[in-house]
Design brief:
Blueprint lengths: L8 E4 L6 E2 L1 H14 L7 H5 L5 H10 L8 H15 L5 E2 L3 H10 L3 E5 L4 H10 L6 E3 L12 H10 L6 E5 L2 H10 L2 E5 L17 E3 L2 H13 L2
Parallel strand pairs: 1-4, 1-6, 4-5, 6-7, 7-8
Antiparallel strand pairs: 2-3
Helix pairs in contact: 1-3, 1-4, 3-4, 5-9
Length: 225
């Protein structure tokens, strides 16, 4: 890590990487359960699935597979409930707000590339007073991560080469997208990673155990310039 060049731009995944959104996604999932007369699920059970998106949460909540005739309607109900609570209990991970403030003060670019739809990503980051130089969402381009195009799009908007960017994420698809895009792939263990996930198979260049250690490493590199 000490020999890694300081990136010109930082790109973050959103859920489980930059912002802990699991509390509000869990609430929406449990409201779906309650709508169907079911008991609420424990938070930790839902947290393990939130990176897999709304369809996975519907399957978890109701055991409706993606081809179930009621799956689409249940997913929309979940998303509608999520829109009601999108920033109630979601928070920026510790240390990252200070990192971003220093990064912006150094006139370095940063952004967010997420598979979250814009309808939910925009109000979330606005509520948390984040102002990324670029926000690329699931519905902005024809393809999503793990395809590299969203990362390339973000780099162009920040006017940097892909090889000058770090992409930080908590999912294998994030690392695959970074590798394909020619960016440095930074994996974080504090995100929404299932216990059984084969982490040694991820194409990550560096790992960070905590958001604080990620922030500290970049702040230390800025200070050493």
């Amino acid at each position: 890590m000490n020999h890694a060049p300081l990136p010109k731009a930082l790109l973050f995944d959103l859920d489980g990487t930059l912002i802990d959104t699991a509390p509000d996604l869990a609430e929406a999932t449990n409201r779906l359960r309650e709508h169907h007369g079911l008991a609420r699920l424990p938070y930790d059970v839902i947290r393990a699935q939130v990176s897999n998106g709304g369809s996975a949460l519907v399957t978890l909540a109701l055991e409706f597979a993606s081809d179930h005739p009621q799956h689409a309607g249940a997913r929309q109900y979940l998303l509608d409930r999520y829109a009601e609570v999108v920033a109630d209990n979601s928070r920026i991970y510790p240390g990252l707000a200070d990192l971003i403030a220093r990064w912006e003060a150094e006139a370095r670019g940063w952004g967010i590339v997420t598979n979250k739809p814009r309808a939910y990503a925009e109000p979330l980051i606005e509520a948390l007073s984040l102002r990324p130089g670029v926000l690329v969402c699931a519905d902005d381009l024809p393809v999503r991560k793990p395809e590299p195009e969203p990362l390339w799009f973000a780099a162009r908007r920040l006017n940097v080469e892909p090889g000058q960017c770090w992409y930080v994420g908590d999912h294998r698809r994030d690392m695959e997208a970074a590798e394909r895009a020619g960016m440095t792939a930074i994996a974080v263990r504090y995100g929404y990673i299932p216990d059984e996930e084969p982490l040694d198979e991820w194409p990550a260049d560096h790992w960070f155990e905590t958001s604080e250690s990620l922030a500290d490493a970049l702040l230390a590199s800025l200070g050493a310039r």
